[in-house]
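Tokens for chain A. Residues wanted.
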């Protein structure tokens, strides 16, 4: 039936066109005497002109009947007969452009320009099509050609400003948009476009000025309100931004939820949780199943340390069929905050069922098992988290720490080694494996690692202290000068660190500089007391050893007794007791 209608329409169109062409031909013949000389000069054939007019009329009427594909074919046929082809090329190009076929639109208009390269109407159409097809350079060249002969063609300045803006040439864009304003002082888009130029240059003061002018020219120009709110947000004028977004709602109530969301985001960003909740409730009064509002209310309640209310929001989302991984994750977080660890684990395991590749739910479960003292499960889930995130340096550090907690030093070492293969200059990984080597009494390997760390960071104080104190502790005489240099460097960086002062005191002790050692150990005890209140057992033992060497037996005894009192290690206590016996 549809095809029958189309055939009938075509027949009607042809009949109308034949009639119009006949009328055109009669009229042409009637004036033949007057136009005979002109036609002879231009070599025009009236019958050919009638044929061209026939196809033009057929194309035009097809357009009116909403059959652009037929229209294009009629116009193309007319090109064989028409003397003035510019109009037909323009029409063909417009049809293709309206149909979204920019390549054929460009082809048609460029064919027209071959015949009439200086025809401004063709040039205007060409420039617009170049803009649509994003051929900005061609568009720019074409518009510039137009304004040479038609300098008051304001549309050209608008598009030239747009192309300059697209290419990032803000000065040229500003120049063209200002010319556009000169020709169109009552056109709001002219002011709006120049505000965007100033925004692109981060000149927010002028951007605001032109946006306000846009609104003055057209109080209902919604894009200006929205952009002005954005400018106020960027410049930290949050109250002004909120007021403008409220104005947006007055101008365009159909987008009320969008602008309320902007307002809620501002309150959320400045940590004003109560106002955030109030605005999301306002959104839900408009749309009670607005999942974004429900989700962000849940997040806000988590920030407010109100996990029960957060759970209500996230469970509402689940009932609405919006049980995505983020919802489950934050629901798990809320249960953790309530101390309902079993329920939290259930939610995290739901995430794993949806996406086994994500490491985060495994990490959260591992953390819960650590909190609840289930160490084996903690290790198991941390290993699973690690397997899914081997390109993250932090996971190597954390997994090694888990192994250290359960005294699995070999596994911790292997984890650090695997991490160092990927991140060879990671100071945290190198520090970690260095201290494990020390704990395992693999001192040569520890020193090798710590010297590498010093190359990476010559001011790494804990490494300066470790190497310096190691040489003093092991009493390696040939390294004592280097040890002193390292500790002095550490104390230049952290002069109030009592532990580093103790290390230097012990170096002086090994060098038999007992007076300097005594001076430094007293300073060390004061520094540690000021910071930690309780002085470390080892520092007190050092103080006793130094006092004993100076013949200050009573003071040495006091230091040794204080050392035993704070010590928690039986072997350390026995060693110090032996030193007390040696004083007598």
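Reply:
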């Amino acid at each position: 039936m549809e095809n029958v209608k189309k055939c009938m329409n075509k027949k009607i169109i042809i009949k109308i066109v034949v009639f119009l062409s006949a009328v055109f031909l009669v009229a042409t013949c009637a004036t033949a005497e007057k136009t005979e000389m002109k036609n002879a000069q231009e070599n025009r054939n009236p019958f050919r002109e009638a044929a061209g007019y026939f196809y033009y009329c057929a194309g035009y009427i097809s357009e009116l009947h909403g059959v652009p594909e037929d229209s294009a074919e009629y116009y193309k046929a007319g090109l064989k007969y028409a003397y003035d082809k510019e109009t037909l090329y323009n029409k063909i190009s417009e049809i293709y452009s309206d149909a979204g076929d920019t390549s054929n639109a460009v082809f048609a208009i460029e064919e027209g320009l071959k015949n009439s390269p200086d025809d401004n109407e063709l040039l205007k159409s060409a420039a617009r099509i170049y803009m649509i097809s994003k051929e900005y350079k061609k568009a720019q060249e074409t518009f510039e050609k137009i304004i040479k002969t038609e300098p008051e063609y304001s549309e050209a300045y608008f598009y030239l400003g747009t192309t300059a803006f697209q290419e990032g040439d803000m000065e040229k864009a500003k120049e063209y948009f200002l010319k556009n304003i000169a020709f169109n002082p009552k056109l709001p888009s002219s002011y709006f476009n120049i505000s965007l130029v100033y925004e692109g240059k981060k000149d927010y003061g002028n951007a605001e000025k032109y946006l306000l002018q846009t609104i003055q020219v057209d109080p209902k120009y919604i894009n200006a309100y929205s952009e002005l709110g954005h400018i106020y947000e960027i410049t930290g004028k949050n109250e002004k931004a909120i007021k403008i977004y409220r104005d947006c709602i007055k101008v365009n109530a159909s987008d009320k939820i969008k602008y309320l969301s902007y307002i809620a985001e501002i309150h959320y960003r400045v940590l004003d949780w109560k106002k955030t909740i109030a605005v999301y409730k306002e959104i839900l009064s408009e749309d009670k199943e607005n999942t974004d509002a429900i989700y962000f209310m849940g997040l806000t309640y988590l920030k407010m340390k109100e996990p029960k209310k957060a759970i209500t929001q996230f469970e509402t989302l689940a009932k609405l069929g919006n049980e995505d991984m983020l919802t489950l994750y934050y629901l798990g977080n809320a249960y953790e905050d309530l101390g309902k660890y079993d329920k939290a684990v259930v939610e995290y395991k739901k995430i794993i069922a949806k996406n086994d590749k994500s490491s985060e739910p495994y990490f959260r479960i591992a953390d819960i098992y650590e909190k609840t003292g289930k160490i084996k499960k903690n290790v198991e889930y941390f290993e699973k988290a690690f397997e899914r995130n081997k390109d993250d340096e932090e996971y190597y550090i954390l997994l090694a720490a888990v192994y250290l907690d359960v005294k699995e030093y070999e596994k911790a070492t292997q984890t650090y080694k695997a991490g160092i293969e990927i991140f060879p200059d990671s100071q945290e990984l190198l520090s970690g494996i260095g201290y494990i080597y020390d704990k395992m009494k693999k001192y040569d390997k520890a020193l090798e690692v710590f010297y590498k760390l010093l190359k990476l960071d010559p001011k790494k104080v804990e490494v300066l202290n470790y190497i310096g104190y190691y040489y003093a502790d092991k009493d390696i005489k040939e390294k004592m000068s280097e040890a002193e240099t390292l500790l002095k460097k550490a104390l230049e960086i952290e002069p109030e660190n009592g532990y580093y002062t103790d290390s230097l005191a012990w170096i002086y002790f090994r060098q038999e500089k007992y007076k300097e050692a005594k001076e430094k150990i007293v300073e060390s005890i004061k520094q540690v007391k000021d910071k930690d209140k309780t002085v470390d057992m080892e520092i007190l033992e050092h103080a006793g050893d130094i006092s004993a060497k100076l013949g200050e037996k009573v003071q040495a005894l006091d230091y040794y007794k204080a050392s035993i009192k704070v010590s928690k290690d039986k072997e350390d206590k026995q060693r110090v007791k032996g030193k007390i016996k040696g004083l007598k």
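The longest helix spans residues 2-30. The two ends are 123 Å apart (CA to CA).
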